[in-house]
Amino acid sequence: MWDYTKYYFAPMVQILAILGFYWGGHYTWIAIGAFPAIAILDALLPLDQAERKMKSHFWAYLPVWMATLLLPVMYFVFAWSVGNNDLTGLQMAAGVMGLAWLSVVPGVPATHELYHSRGRLARFVGRYGQVAFLDCMRMEVHVVGHHRDVGTAEDIDTAERGLNLYRFVARSVAESVRWELRLDADNLEKRGYGRYSIRHSLWRALLAIVVFQAVIYALGGWTAVGLCLTSMVIARFWVEAFNYYQHFGQVRVVGAPIEKRHVWNHYGTLSRLYAFEITNHADHHLNSYIPYYKLVPDREAIIMPSIIVCFLSGFIPSLWYNAIIKPALKRWDNEYASPAERRLAREQNRQAGWEDWFDDQDGRAKQPDAPVFARG
Predict the structure, then answer these.
(1) Residue 369 has pLDDT above 80, yes or no
(2) Contacts of 338 (CB under 8 A, 6+ apart)
(3) Nearest CA to 119 among 330, 255, 291?
(4) Which of 10, 58, 177, 258 is deepest in the core (most CB within 10 A)?
């Protein structure tokens, strides 16, 4: 029972944020205040590499559905608060940042879990729940593109070595939109329809945004629309920022099998719960239909710090490179990569101006110096 109960942590945080928006005043800080609280606890608590003992799909998915459906509720209550409570500029700013943060986590993991489901209703709700971060077309590109191309130069969600967070986010937002538009247009053309006919998912995505903002306007007026839209834009960029840490620097030969090693896992006690195991997703790349509660932590993987610690460090590229990702990649190249992958890794290191931590030019690797992260 405890394994089921603890995943209600995510909707619980959302409900507290909603109450804070409803009460107004300084309570609007609850949403953004959850971020440092969770970050600190996740970094201090011991890692959680336990396998879950959950059998009931219904009870396991109930908090996922709650977290997804609470996304628009958060926006609507904040919009009402803007229109009815006498919020200061600082309190409105806190609400904007809190909405953005909660749209990304638990918003992204919850909607991601639903649109990877086999059920049509779950996929529909997962797709349009992403209106909270302006990305209702992401489902196909993620499922078809990322899950096929992960670790290769073709994957827009895999950051190559030397690419800092800021450049990656700007590129990824632009590239994901381009791929989303083209993928659906190509499919329509193959079926004999116009590339941007009314059947294109772009028009449904825009309709979802218009309807969403119309409700916000009805609740809080134009000020609420502006504030909520600002949250959605910020969230959209933060979504790509989180992608940055999941596969950074890893390489895979195009066409080669995807293996558990082609992903970074983060086993923070709270982040596993709060993000519905999206930080424990090696198995997810082997079979994208596996529900979150059946994902088994890879105990042979390189142990990474809390995903929130990684997220914060990325804003200072030198800190991210030198304290976290270079030591991890050195181990990955020397202990996990195939000979062909080591050649790709060496070339990326060269292009990034990084160290060449291989002792042979034929792909054989030396054993790394005192590893920073221990095996699980």
Answers:
(1) no
(2) 253, 256
(3) 291
(4) 10
